[in-house]
């Protein structure tokens, strides 16, 4: 029979049974079992905490909230829970040309986006900035960060996601009232992805350059080479279509574009050597998905434009009596070669 426990603080329990008292297990204090929360309750509490944290962050960062709501992957989920949370898109009519937020492309229809480009061209024609340079192209031009464009000139970005040479031909009139010093053209990859023949692509390109030269006789028109793609490493949605077009094929098309530039008295900027790896693929450190460019890729492009501007474009603007620059000082501009 055991004695009662001594409950005074600092005292150990004493048992009268010697066998029991000598048992080392009895030196362990007795701990009452506590009730544990169910797993579902713990998860609910943690989830609510994360939700409150997220709401606090979004409340103090309105720009982050706006980007989140307009994200094409997240906005459908928000719309299911709060149908009126995403405001309707209102017509855009800028007074001065400004960079359209990248989220706008995900909510505007094709016709709305065309109207944005038209209105921006009108605004520029009214302002008549000095040394105006136009980026005329597809999504690669569209997403060119404004802060990375060379600052020695004014810029009008007329890039359109998914643009083909045939579609570009239909909107050249947007530039009729502008007075650009330079027009940089890049298109073709979407033609190739869509199965447009080389003959049609090159015919459209020649017509684009010829039309621009006629309407803007005082402007320098520059054809920029079609960039290579990333091959098997691509993660774009239409990967299989692009893989059907080899980078060797793109290389040969660029040679023909260089010939068109020479015949139409335009300039040709060969960007391919800057963006190609040893196998002729788009460098993995310059792309997000094997087709589109990351910030480093745009920095490379911007540097090429700056070099081209300082050599080829200024040489074209200079009087004919001026001593031409040495070839070693010129940027990578491909000469027409026999395919």
CATH architecture annotation name of one domain: 3-Layer(aba) Sandwich
In CATH terms, what is the fold-level topology of one domain? Rossmann fold
Question: Describe the biggest sheet?
Answer: 5 strands, parallel
Q: Kindly state the number of beta strands.
A: 5
Low-confidence stretches: 1-21, 81-103, 320-331, 333-339
Taking Cα atoms only, what radius of gyration do you get, to the nearest Å? 32 Å
Output the structural class. Answer: alpha/beta
Q: What proportion of the residues is helical, as a percent range? A: 40-55%
Main β-sheet, spatial strand arrangement: 2-1-3-4-5
Mean pLDDT: 78
Give the gist of this structure:
It is built from 13 helices and five strands. It is an alpha/beta fold and 339 residues long.
Characterization of the model:
Mean pLDDT is 78; it is low at 1-21, 81-103, 320-331 and 333-339. This protein starts with 17 loop residues before the first helix and ends in a 22-residue tail after the last helix. Helix 9 runs parallel beside helix 11 (247-263). The protein has 339 residues and is an alpha/beta fold. The protein has a 5-stranded parallel sheet, sandwiched between helices. It is built from 13 helices and 5 strands. The protein has a domain at 102-318: SGNH hydrolase (Rossmann fold, 3-Layer(aba) Sandwich). The chain is 42% helix and 7% strand.
């Amino acid at each position: 029979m055991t004695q009662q426990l001594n409950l005074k603080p600092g005292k150990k329990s004493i048992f009268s049974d010697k066998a029991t008292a000598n048992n080392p297990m009895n030196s362990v204090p007795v701990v009452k079992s506590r009730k544990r929360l169910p797993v579902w309750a713990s998860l609910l509490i943690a989830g609510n905490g994360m939700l409150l944290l997220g709401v606090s962050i979004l409340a103090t960062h309105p720009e982050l909230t706006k980007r989140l709501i307009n994200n094409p992957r997240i906005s459908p989920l928000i719309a299911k829970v709060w149908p009126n949370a995403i405001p309707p898109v209102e017509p855009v009519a800028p007074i001065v040309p400004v960079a359209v937020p990248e989220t706008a492309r995900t909510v505007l229809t094709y016709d709305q986006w065309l109207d944005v480009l038209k209105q921006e061209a009108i605004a520029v024609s009214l302002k008549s900035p000095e040394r105006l340079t136009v980026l005329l192209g597809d999504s690669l031009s569209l997403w060119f960060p404004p802060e990375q464009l060379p600052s020695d000139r004014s810029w009008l970005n007329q890039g359109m996601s998914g643009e083909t040479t045939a579609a570009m031909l239909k909107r050249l009139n947007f530039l009729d009232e502008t007075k650009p010093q330079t027009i940089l053209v890049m298109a073709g990859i979407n033609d190739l992805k869509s199965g447009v023949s080389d003959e049609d692509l090159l015919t459209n390109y020649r017509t684009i350059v010829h039309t621009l030269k006629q309407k803007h006789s005082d402007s320098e028109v520059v054809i920029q080479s079609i960039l290579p793609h990333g091959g098997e490493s691509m993660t774009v949605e239409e990967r299989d279509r692009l893989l059907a077009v080899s980078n060797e094929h793109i290389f040969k098309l660029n040679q023909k574009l260089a010939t068109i530039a020479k015949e139409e008295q335009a300039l040709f900027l060969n960007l391919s050597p800057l963006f190609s790896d040893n196998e002729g693929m788009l460098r993995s450190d310059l792309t997000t998905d094997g087709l589109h460019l990351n910030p480093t890729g745009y920095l490379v492009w911007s540097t090429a434009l700056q070099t081209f501007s300082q050599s080829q474009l200024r040489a074209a603007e200079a009087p004919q009596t001026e001593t031409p620059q040495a070839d070693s000082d010129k940027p990578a501009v491909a000469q027409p070669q026999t395919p």
